[in-house]
């Protein structure tokens, strides 16, 4: 057996040169060392392979020697009285967060060298194998897995939800010598009677209550009002001070911060932090408490129901990779759609056969891998003992390669922070457009065209424009609640209870109930544009704008805008119940285009040259954290009248579908065709061997972005020979699919938590005529699908 290895020594290598080593997961499937057949690592390229891919890989590459890793997982019996785990983070699946699996395991691992095509097995350890083989084996086993290294690189310098930055005010904080000394107890807000949620201002020693929380508890905002008046930046939460530190908030930086000089700052007011014990909950603990109460967390996860687990094809769970539940829910829903199944599962073998040398970096390979992993049933089997009786194989898939690739280079999706599922869906659509062409793009099933009609109310002339979209984003009109009397009665009972220092049972919560049809009416309603530049009268006018569908997609993704900004500027989520029908008819919302007797607004090129916007005001708004393109629109639409009016415009329009889209002055859209590329960008692309004409074409197609241009030019490699700098005929925009406007609900994604940046996502999908809940690894029959509390809904045309 050992002699056969000597025939392949010239192709056996050790990963000494920084090569990637994939030893935890197959590049083309979710087989891993714990799988029934283990994992095979190529000892030349260090690619991990499931057994079904070893022989095809050998035939394609000629690499015949593999390190076989087999790991057996055994559950460790729980102690009779296990210590209670302390929750320190508002997250699921990360250290300090809520558990997704409270079991503990131990592992046994065995190794061998396998040589193809005979599948000769050389057990390890073995003193007779050649030195080069021994060195390769030891190097592979000691190397860090490439997926873990990619995750660590992406996470470098990011925030998981607990780490805080040092405040810029800490080192040189000014403290007033006003003689104030803070007693060790008996604290009360200086402006009201509250004795909890109190904050000590570290500049003047005032003690004031904090913000009011989303559920009505908390404080009366007196500490915030004090900052607005005096601009003293730092405050510490009384009751959280210990020798280890405390909750410190910076009003100017609008975040919880670190104060390395906290001991000195507290001593100034007579406080010995080393002698204090914690008596109040930190802000993280308060958030956790709010979300552990009965409410949407239990309802959405169907807590209390006896959920029957499901196994087999299409019922595969996804492990939570540290706040990746938003990704898990979106991808589960995506792969119920035939377009995605056809491209990334049914024909996945075609994608594998043309994979690059490093499959972990190929978008289509990893999408196909995920599709087959979810739909094959190979990773969703009832929990039975293994054939040898030594352990339990894990269920569900761990999509680490996929997460690393999809999030690569993205400031948010590369981290372990919780993200918005709606933003992730649109990010995925963007990646699909960049990595597929023509009719091969499965995201086309979501694509629809919207007709925007604008009428100048003074001249009565109109302008029709069309835009493509992939998601219908709907506002939630709180005034349309059908149970206002019940909500008002509940709020009165709640206020009465709080005045007596009590709280109502969370089970008695009454949410405003909004019909989905009211949300659709808001989408279709005419909107008044006060500061509209009319080319018909060559000046400002008032216009009316309305939206309609030009086409209806095969699958309609609907978002309810639950995340908003409160009057106190604190992000929050609307806690509402929306009556969502199983069947939806959007036919009345189809656009009809320009009607007989309507006159077009004249061209605007000449007038647009006179329009200017105040860049200083734009910058002031952008410094507050708003999207710069939306800030430009705000300043333009308020006629350069100052920050306050522009800010009001931002607050009214920040949920608009096009708020963050590139701003163009009226009439400038037609100038888009006259593209002048940046010479440095041209040189960079031409240095890769492409012609000047091809480089110009790529930059024009990607708005001058070099990185996207390179991706674009490689994805259009088969068209390069026919590209021309000047097109003889205008390029036709691909037509959206179209059909009737009648739909049925087939899936929905729900969010639990106080904002999109914390909490947890689960999804419910109709499969085989029944609702199924997908909660990360757990897949089960849904007894009470909470359709009214969801965030994203998927409708299929019927």
UniProtKB/TrEMBL annotation:
Does the keyword section mention Lipid metabolism? no
Q: What would you give as a GO molecular function for this chain, any one?
A: zinc ion binding
**Which class of enzymes does this protein belong to?**
hydrolase
Every USP domain range: 316-798
Annotated residues that bind Zn(2+) are located at 189, 192, 209, 222
Catalysed reactions listed for this entry: Thiol-dependent hydrolysis of ester, thioester, amide, peptide and isopeptide bonds formed by the C-terminal Gly of ubiquitin (a 76-residue protein attached to proteins as an intracellular targeting signal)
UniProt cross-references to CDD domains, sorted A to Z: Peptidase_C19B (cd02658), UBA1_UBP5_like (cd14294), UBA2_UBP5 (cd14386)
Task: Tell me the segments the record calls region Disordered.
Answer: 587-606
- Its EC number is 3.4.19.12
The record lists substrate as bound by 199, 211-214, 249, 251, 254
Q: Keywords, A to Z?
A: Hydrolase, Metal-binding, Protease, Repeat, Thiol protease, Ubl conjugation pathway, Zinc, Zinc-finger
- Source taxon at top rank: Eukaryota
Query: Does this entry carry the keyword Zinc?
Result: yes
Q: Which residues form the active site?
A: 325, 760
Q: Which SMART domains match?
A: UBA (SM00165), ZnF_UBP (SM00290)
A single BP term in Gene Ontology:
proteolysis
Q: Which residues form the UBP-type domain?
A: 165-273
Outline the extent of the UBA domain: 612-653, 676-716
Tell me which family the UniProt entry assigns to this protein.
Belongs to the peptidase C19 family.
Q: What PANTHER family does UniProt report for this protein, alphabetically? A: UBIQUITIN CARBOXYL-TERMINAL HYDROLASE, UBIQUITIN CARBOXYL-TERMINAL HYDROLASE 14
Protein name, entry field: Ubiquitin carboxyl-terminal hydrolase
């Amino acid at each position: 057996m050992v002699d056969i290895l000597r025939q392949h020594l010239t192709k056996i290598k050790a990963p000494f040169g920084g090569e990637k080593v994939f030893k935890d997961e197959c590049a083309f499937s979710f087989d891993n060392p714990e799988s029934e057949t283990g994992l095979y690592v190529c000892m030349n390229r260090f690619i991990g392979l499931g057994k079904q891919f070893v022989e095809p890989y050998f035939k394609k590459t000629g690499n015949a020697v593999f390190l076989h890793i087999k790991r057996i997982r055994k559950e460790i019996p729980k102690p009779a009285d296990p210590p209670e785990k302390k929750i320190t983070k508002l997250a699921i699946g990360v250290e300090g967060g809520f558990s997704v699996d409270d079991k503990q395991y131990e592992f046994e691992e065995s190794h061998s060298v396998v040589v193809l095509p005979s599948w000769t097995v050389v057990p390890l350890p073995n003193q007779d194998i050649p030195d080069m083989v021994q060195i390769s084996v030891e190097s592979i086993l000691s190397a860090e897995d490439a997926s873990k290294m990619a995750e660590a690189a992406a996470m470098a310098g990011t925030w998981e939800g607990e780490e805080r930055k040092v405040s810029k005010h800490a080192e040189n904080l000014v403290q007033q010598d006003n003689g104030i000394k803070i007693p060790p107890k008996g604290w009360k807000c200086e402006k009201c009677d509250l004795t909890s949620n109190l904050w000590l201002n570290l500049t003047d020693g005032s003690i004031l209550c904090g913000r009011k929380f989303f559920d009505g508890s908390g404080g009366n905002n007196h500490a915030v009002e004090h900052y607005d008046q005096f601009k003293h930046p730092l405050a510490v939460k009384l009751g959280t001070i210990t020798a280890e530190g405390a909750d410190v908030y910076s009003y100017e930086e609008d975040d919880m911060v670190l104060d390395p000089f906290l001991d000195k700052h507290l001593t100034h007011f007579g406080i010995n932090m080393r002698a204090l014990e914690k008596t109040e909950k930190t802000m993280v603990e308060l958030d956790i408490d709010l979300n552990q109460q009965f409410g949407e967390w239990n309802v959405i996860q169907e807590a209390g129901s006896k959920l029957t687990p499901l196994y087999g094809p299409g019922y595969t769970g996804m492990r939570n990779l540290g706040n990746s539940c938003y990704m898990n829910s979106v991808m589960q829903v995506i792969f119920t759609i035939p377009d995605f199944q056809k491209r990334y599962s049914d024909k996945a073998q075609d994608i594998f056969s043309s994979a690059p040398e490093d499959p972990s970096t190929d978008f289509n390979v990893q999408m196909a891998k995920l599709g087959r992993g979810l739909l094959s049933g190979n990773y969703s089997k009832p929990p039975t003992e293994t054939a040898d009786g030594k352990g339990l194989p894990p269920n569900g898939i761990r999509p680490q390669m996929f997460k690393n690739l999809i999030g690569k280079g993205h400031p948010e999706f590369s981290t372990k922070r919780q993200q918005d599922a709606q933003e992730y869906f649109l990010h995925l659509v963007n990646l699909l457009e960049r990595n597929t062409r023509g009719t091969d793009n499965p995201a086309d099933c979501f694509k629809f065209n919207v007709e925007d009609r604008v009428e100048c109310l003074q001249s009565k002339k109109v302008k029709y424009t069309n835009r493509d979209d992939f998601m219908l984003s709907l506002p939630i009109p709180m005034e349309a609640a059908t149970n206002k009397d019940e909500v008002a009665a509940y709020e009165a009972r709640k206020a009465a209870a709080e005045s007596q220092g009590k709280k109502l049972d969370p089970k008695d919560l009454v949410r405003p109930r909004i019909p989905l049809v009211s949300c659709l009416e808001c989408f279709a309603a005419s909107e008044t544009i006060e500061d509209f530049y009319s080319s018909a009268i060559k000046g400002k006018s008032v216009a009316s704008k309305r939206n309609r569908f030009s086409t209806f997609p095969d699958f309609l993704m609907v978002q309810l805008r639950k995340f908003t900004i409160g009057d106190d500027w604190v992000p929050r989520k609307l806690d509402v119940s929306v009556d969502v029908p199983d069947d939806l008819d959007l036919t009345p919302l189809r656009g009809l285009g320009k009607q007989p007797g309507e006159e077009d607004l004249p061209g605007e090129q000449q007038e647009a040259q006179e329009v200017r916007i105040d860049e200083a005001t734009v910058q002031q708004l952008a410094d507050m954290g708003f999207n710069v393109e939306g800030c430009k629109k705000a300043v333009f639409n308020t006629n350069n009248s100052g920050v306050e009016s522009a800010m009001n415009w931002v607050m009214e329009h920040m949920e608009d579908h096009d708020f963050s889209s590139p701003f163009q002055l009226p009439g400038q859209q037609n100038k888009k065709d006259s593209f002048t590329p940046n010479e440095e960008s041209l040189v960079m692309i031409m240095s890769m061997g492409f012609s000047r004409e091809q480089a110009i074409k790529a930059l024009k197609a990607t708005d001058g972005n070099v990185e996207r241009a390179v991706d674009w030019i490689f994805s259009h490699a088969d068209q390069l020979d026919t590209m021309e700098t000047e097109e003889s005929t205008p390029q036709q925009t691909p037509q959206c699919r179209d059909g009737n406007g009648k739909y049925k609900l087939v899936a929905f994604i729900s969010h639990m938590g106080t904002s999109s940046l914390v909490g947890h996502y689960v999804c419910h999908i109709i499969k085989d005529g029944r609702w199924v809940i997908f909660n990360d690894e757990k897949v089960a029959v849904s007894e009470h699908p909470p359709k009214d509390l969801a965030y994203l809904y998927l409708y299929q045309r019927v």
